[in-house]
Amino acid sequence: MTRSVQALAYARPSALTDATGGRHLGLETAGGTTPLGAEAHPQFFAGFLTSPQVAARGLLAVADVAAARYHQRTRPASLDPVVTGNGDRLRFESFSGCCGVYARLDVLQEGLDGADTGHGTTNVDVNNPLREALSRLAGDDPLHLRVGPEEMVVSTLDGPVVEKKVPLPDRWLRGFAEAQVVSGGFDLRAELPAAEAVRFLRALPRTADAGGRGPMWVVPAGRTLRPTTRPGPGAVCLPGPDRLGALQRVLRHATALRVYGPPATDGAATAAAWEVVLPGMRLTLTLSPDPARGFSGEGGVLEALATDEAAADADLVSVLLAWEPRIDPADLAEQSGLSVARVRAALARLGTAGRVGYDVADAAYFHRELPYDAERAERHNPRLVAARALLAEGAVHLDGTTAGTATVLSGERRYQVREASGGVLSCTCTWWADYRGRRGPCKHALAVRMAKRNLIAAGGTR
C-alpha cells in the first residue's frame, strides 16, 4: 500500500480548561488553507457553543471514527480530525483507518454564539487528555470554543511544541473523494423521531457481522425501521451495523434520525448515510457497502479523472469556489459557461483533491481544502494508472470510429469492451462480471474511454 507521512505541527496541545464565567475549549490547529493562502495555525472561531455537552459528545464521536478500524481491528489507526470554517458553520470531519466509515459533525449557525465563523480548512489536535476531559463534561455551563490559537500568544512562540507524524495511505485520500461522489446519489429514505431513533440504534448488534452472511437491510415500518435480509421499496443497506457505534455518544440528545441511500435495485450492497439531528448541529456517519471494503475502491471518480476536459473545467470551477457552505452546480454552470454535467464532473475531480465535500442534509456540495498532498491519490489510483499504461502500450484497439466494440490486450488475454446506449461501457473481464459497473469502470473500459476521447480530440468521430 502506497503511503506518505503527514506531519502535523501544533502550537500547543488542545485542552479543556476552567475559565471565568464557564469553561474554555481550545482546539489547536495545524497548517491549513484560508482565503489568504496557507497559514501555519489558522483561527476559525472564538465564541460560545449553545449546546456545550452535545458539541463535546459530537466531537468525541468524530474522534472515535478517526481512531477506529472496523476491519482488521488489530491494526492501530489515529488521524486528527479536519475542521472547515464555512462562514456560517464549523464542519469536523474524519475517516476511519479502514476507509469504510466517514464521519462529519456540522455545528450550524444556531449552535454557535458570539462570534463570526472564519473560512478555511485545517487539522485539529484531539489528544487523549482532551478526550478524557470532554467525556467528563456535564451540564450546560457556558463553554467558550476557540478553533485556532490566540493571536497574541502565537506571536511569542518560537515554534511548534506538539508534532505528530502519522502514516497517510493514498487509499485514505481516495476514500474522501469517493465518499463525496457516492453521497451525491443519495436521497432521504426515512426519518425517525427521537424516541424511535434511540430505540432502533440501541437494538442494533454491537459486534461485526458473522462471516458468510449477506448484508443487513432496513425498511421503513411506520415510525421506525424494520431489519430485513432482502431489500424492498425504500430499503437502505446496513452492512456492519456495529459501525454506527459512534452515534451512541449523542443519542440522549437526538431529536431525529435521518437515513439516506441510493435506490435498492438489484439487491447488491450499497453505501448509506445515517444522520443524527441534534440541537444546533448534525452528526452524520456514511458507511461503505461492506465492512471489509473501503470507499477508496469504489471508482466513482475515475471517469472524471480520465479526461483532460474535466481537468481544465476543474481549474475554472475552482476559481469560483468561495468557501461556500452550499455549492449549487447550476449556479456554477451559469458563472462558468459550462453545462451542469461538466460542472458535476469538475466537482468530482476537485473532490479527489479534497477541495469539495457533499452534505446529504443540504443535498449540496461544500467548499473545503484538505491539508494533504491529495494529488497523490490521483497519481496512484491503481485502475487509472493501469488504464493509462494500457493506452501507452498501444493495447487498445478501437473497431472503427463508431460506437461499438473495442479490444484490449492485457497480459496474454484479450478483453472485449462494448458501449451500450447511454454510453455505458461493459467488459468481458472478471471485474465487470463481479460488479457490473457498481464500483466504477474496470481498467480496460477506462482505457477504451480515454482512447475514444483522444480520437475525438484528434478530429475523428465516435
Write a structural description.
The protein is of the alpha+beta class and 462 residues long. Among the domains are: 3-93 and 105-167, no CATH class; 384-457, no CATH class. It has 13 helices and 26 strands. It has a 10-stranded antiparallel β-sheet, sandwiched between helices. Strand 23 (396-398) and strand 24 form a beta hairpin. It is globular. The two termini are 37 Å apart.
Largest sheet: 10 strands, antiparallel
Shape: globular
In total, how many beta strands? 26
Average residue-wise pLDDT:
84
What Rg do the Cα atoms give? 23 Å
Distance between the termini: 37 Å
Please, how many helices? Answer: 13
Within the largest sheet, what's the order of strands? 5-4-11-7-8-9-20-19-18-14
Helical content, roughly?
A: 25-40%
Low-pLDDT stretches: 151-158
Residues in β-strands, percent: 25-35%
Helix/strand-derived category reads alpha+beta
Oligomeric state of this protein: single chain
